Amino acid sequence: MSADVQATPSGSAVKFDGRPGIVGIKAGMTQVYQDDGSQLAVTVIDLTPNVVTQIKTTEKEGYNAIQIGVLEKKAKGVNKPEAGHFKKSGKSGFYAAQEFRLEPTAKMDGVTVGATLDASMFKEGELVDLISVSKGKGFQGGMKRYHMSGNYKTHGASLSHRSLGSIGNRADPGKTFKNKKMPGQMGNVRTTVQNVRVVRVDLENGLMLVHGSVPGPKSGFVTVRRAIKSK
User: Fold this and answer.
1) What DSSP letter does each residue of 18-87 carry, written as one string?
2) Do residues 133 and 220 make contact, with C-beta atoms less than 8 angstroms apart?
3) Fewer CB within 10 Å: N-end or C-end of the chain?
4) Given this model, what pLDDT does residue 12 score?
5) What is the end-to-end Cα distance of the chain in Å, rounded?
6) Nearest to 212 by CA among 146, 204, 202, 222
């Protein structure tokens, strides 16, 4: 897969020929109608401009990558290490920063710190992978977490209606194996949804509409990348 990178002067859009990425903000869900009258449930992602804050090269860091910052902070909310790191981009700081690694053959000529990535990187009908942190649901039991059936609900079953049942074996091996499905923390994990179709791209307002739902709460950060498994 080609990973060539082309860029225009600082402050304007950067275009990728390989598998680019951009970080947006989940704005919520709505619905759109297609030309044939069918209705689609879509998630709106606000692709606020991503500013290139650092460029890594094979010669200096050992690999090629671009770091971007999203959602600029006010200067009073930025500590000194952050301010020093983001100074070259011309911004005080960002609420989120992410690095997109490129192939060793990627051409980095012309890519400058301070350039921006925007919604023009993607087009309608394209397949993308969406990465975000799912909603945290706290400590949950086996029935909610793994859809287990629970125990008997008849006479004589006391305080065990929602229990797992046996979690081990006999005297041999005499232990509960690691990764056994049991009660525990549910949600709040990095989740990737693959091959999601881009329904619409609004360049004027910097919005992208994707088919279906996206993990995570409203106002959560969503990483959008070209699908790695698309045909």
Assistant:
1) S--EEEEEEEEEEEEE-TTS-EEEEEEEE-PPEEEEEEE-TTTTSSEEEEEEEEEPPGGG--HHHHHHHG
2) yes
3) C
4) 44
5) 12
6) 222
What CATH code would you report for 5-136+191-226?
A: 2.40.30.10
Residue 144, H or E segment:
helix 142-146
- Rounded distance between C-alpha atoms, residue 177 and residue 211, angstroms: 39
What is the Cα–Cα distance from 211 to 198, expressed in whole angstroms?
A: 6
Q: In 3D, which of 54, 49, 48, 50 has the Cα closest to residue 112?
A: 54
Bridge partners, 97 (sequence order): 69
Residue spans per domain, the chain: 5-136+191-226, 139-160+178-187
What number is the average pLDDT over the span 2-25? 56
Dihedral over alpha carbons 220, 223, 224, 227 (to 10 degrees): -130
Q: Mean pLDDT over residues 16-36, rounded? A: 85
